[in-house]
Structures are given as structure tokens and as C-alpha cells.
Amino acid sequence: MGKTIRIGTRDSELALWQAHTVQNHLEKLGHKTRLLPVKSTGDIVLDKPLYELGITGIFTKTLDIAMLNNDVDIAVHSMKDVPTALPKGIVEAAVLKRANVKDILVHKGLDFLNSKGTIATGSLRRKAQWLHKYRDHEVVDLRGNVNTRMQKLTNSNWNGAIFAAAGLERINLKPENYIDLDWMIPAPAQGAMLVVAKEEDTYCREALAALNHKTSEICVHIEREFLRELEGGCTAPIGAFAKINKEQIYFVGALFSLDGSKKIEVVKEVKIGREEDFGKICAQEVLNNGGIDLIEEIKIMMK
Strands 248-256 and 263-271: what pairing? Predict the structure, then answer.
């Protein structure tokens, strides 16, 4: 059946798991495929926080270039890492069924929660929300793939580190010593996998259309529309989560200051079928409630 679909992916264990999942789906549908792993800048430069690198789409840019150079046909991403504006000529081809959206705390005991403690994360969103709840704690930067971060936690004197539940579950690395952070608003599109293809590649786009999960697609697009309207990149202190409950779409989103002292939140519902511009409307409510000034403050502090 047709050409061999060349699948581009990062070369971490989690990224390869995701790419193999897409490969298996496509091959079950009768397509021929080949995996082509590459290393992104975000995987190579580990001694600086992500926001200091100043590159939008740091985990996706290498694969974008490979696709535009015709070295790969499609690319598989953790959707929360993908910029809200894709490069010209590249389009979303499938959003797979979403996995666990929660953040979790992997810890060495929970006594520290009521006193002073040190938590590790490479995410400004997680840092801001943790400091909003635990003002006396210290949050340190943690970079690397999932396996590397878990090892760094083991070798440190930190009390715990924050991870996306989906990533640990996918590669069977979720330990017993964790708690769900039900109060933490996830990153837009957390737990979702996105496959992109070239706009002109009708063969791959048609093949991938069979993998698309419509409910997940609706929810993550609302979240990413919220993010785009707030002008936040994937590392900004912005959380967003949409879910469908019967005929309603429930949404919660928030913008935080970098130190977690300020939080502007919106909670709204809309009927299914009326969700056009819903993420944008929710973002505008945040902007009108002080978000404009807070975003300017964040931009100044990150310069």
C-alpha cells in the first residue's frame, strides 16, 4: 500500500514509545513505515532552564526542519511541547486519544509539605503553581529526559520532583512513592500526542486521519487557543484544561506570576458544537482581569 512513511521522532525513551505507538497504528492499517530518530536542541543543552534558551518549539524545531527538507514524512510529538503556530507547510494530521492529564509529585516522604522543602521541575507553570500553594518552599530547575530526571531526583537531597503522569505511565516508570497533584492545572494539551505532516502530503494526511480522536482534538484545541491568545509559549506559567461531560465542555485556565504570588483564573462551560473561539473568550476574560499587566511583567522579568 503506497509509499513507506518515514516517522521522525526525538530519540528519548518516551519519544520513541510515542513514535512506536503511531507506527503500530499505521502498520495495522496496512501502511509501510520506518522510524528515524533525531536529537533536538532541547535534549542536548541540559545545563540551562528551557526559558533561558529562548527558542520557541525547542523540542520540535529539529523535526520541523527534517520534514521541510524531505528527510522525514511525519513527526510525532508530545503535544504540549508544540508551539501554537506551526511552521508554514506543516499541519496537524492527528491527535491521538489523550492519556492521563495530571501532574504528579514523586517524593521521598511527605512530611516536608507542612514545613520547608525543595521541589524540582523544569516547568515555569509547575513552579508557579507549587509556589502559589507552598510559599515557603524552594523550587530548583530540573532538565533532561524522564529517565535522567528521575535519576537526578534519586541522587539529590530534594524532597521531590514534579512529572507528567502520562510520561511515566507510558514507559512504566511511575514509582509507588507519588501523589496526584489534583489541584495543579495541567499544561495545554498535556497527555496528548500530536502527529504532524506536510500540508501537501495528501497520502500521509489521509493515512493519519484514521488515528485522530475527535474528543481529544476538541479539548486540546480549546486549551491551545487559550494559550495562543495569552501569547504564552509552552514554558510560560499558563495552565489550561478542557473536558467533555455529556453535552457540555468544561474549561479551567489560569495565568500565574513567575513567583506564584499572583493567579488569574477562569472557569467556564459551553455546549458541544458552540466551542468556536471558546478558548479565546476564556483568555480574554483573564486578560481583562489583570492578565495584560501580568503578561507584561512576565516578559520584563524573563528578558
Answer: antiparallel
Write 149-155 long-range contacts (CB < 8 A, 24+): 149/120, 149/122, 150/106, 150/175, 152/120, 153/106, 153/120
Per-residue pLDDT for 51 more than 50?
A: no
CA distance 15 to 8: 10
The region of weakest confidence among 50-54, 241-245, 291-295 is 50-54
Sheet holding 118-120, edge to edge: 138-140, 118-120, 160-164, 103-107, 178-180
Known catalytic residues? 81
pLDDT in tens, 139-164: 999 988 899 999 999 999 999 999 99
Task: Report helix, strand or coil for 216.
Answer: helix
| Contact predicate 227/82, CB 8 Å | no
CA distance 160 to 118: 7
233 residue type, one letter: G
Contacts for 277-281: CB closer than 8 Å, 24+ residues apart: 277/225, 278/222, 278/225, 278/249, 278/251, 279/221, 279/222, 279/223, 279/224, 279/225, 279/226, 279/227, 279/228, 279/229, 279/240, 279/242, 279/251, 279/253, 280/225, 280/226, 280/229
- Residue 203 CB coordination number (10 Å): 14
pTM (2 d.p.):
0.91
pLDDT tens for 160-190 read 999 999 999 999 999 999 999 999 999 999 9
